Amino acid sequence: MTVPTGRRERKKAATRQKIADAAMRLFLERGYDAVGIRDVAAEADVAVTTLFSHFAAKEALVFEQDQDFERRLTGAVTGRAPDEPLLPALRREIRALVRHCTAEGAAPVWRMIAGSPALREYEESMRLRHADSLAAAVAADPGLPLTPTACRTLARFVVDAYSLAREAADPDAAVDEIFPMIEAAWEVAVRERGEPSGAGARTLGRSTTALTKD
After folding, report:
1. What is the model's pTM?
2. Cα–Cα nearest to 64, from 14, 20, 121, 99
3. Residue 176, Cβ neighbours under 10 Å: how many?
4. Which residues contact 168 (CB under 8 A, 6 or more apart)?
5. What is the pLDDT of residues 116-143, one digit of tens each?
6. How many CA atoms lie within 13 A of 132 on its CB side?
7. What HEC string does the chain produce?
8. How many C-beta neighbours within 10 Å does residue 198 have?
9. Where is the composition biased (Polar residues) (predicted)?
């Protein structure tokens, strides 16, 4: 989670976290559908209006790190070193996100999400929004010769890689299996455009060693 620097920002972040923690505690104890917004506000000892100033919907209480995840995905593009290819940077960030979301204690949360149509729908819309933000970050990189369609396709592949790896029996192994396939798809796209085969290697990073081990 991004750590705010100013006193006011820290206070807002602490309140937001208190609300999210209270919500998750109630959801896991009673069930998502059995808990209302007023229940969460009372548990967190805040006004309902305060809760809605931090979370726009009940579903958002479950995905409280939504914005942070989105920033991390786009930051993997914009914050990488000038000589670092794109795919290794994205793979590293996806691996970190997957590890975070499969840490000890996460399983009951994912079971809750799987059992709620509203939460599954919210998660799907969140993934699409993350993919759009990632595509925009890739498209804005002047060193990447990608069409808008290619940017969106790559972003969807990467976000789907997170979902698939998170659900796998061995998430780390799944990341290592998926990313070479994304690289292979990029190589095909490069050939279809008639560019030199090395273009994909230079801009996205075609390295079997780099893609299979940190």
Report:
1. 0.84
2. 20
3. 17
4. 174
5. 999 999 999 999 999 999 999 999 988 8
6. 6
7. CCCCCCHHHHHHHHHHHHHHHHHHHHHHHHCHHHCCHHHHHHHHCCCHHHHHHHCCCCHHHCCCCHHHHHHHHHHHHHCCCCCCCHHHHHHHHHHHHHHHHCCCCCHHHHHHHHCCHHHHHHHHHHHHHHHHHHHHHHHCCCCCCCCHHHHHHHHHHHHHHHHHHHHCCCHHHHHHHHHHHHHHHHHHHHHHCCCCCHHHHHHHCCCHHHHHCC
8. 10
9. 205-214
Tokens of 102: 């499969």
Q: What Å distances lie between residue 192 and 150, 153, 206, CA to CA?
A: 12, 15, 17
The pLDDT of residue 210 is above 70: no
pLDDT tens track for 110-119: 999 999 999 9
Q: Which amino acid is at 140?
A: A
The more confident residue out of 183 and 189 is 183
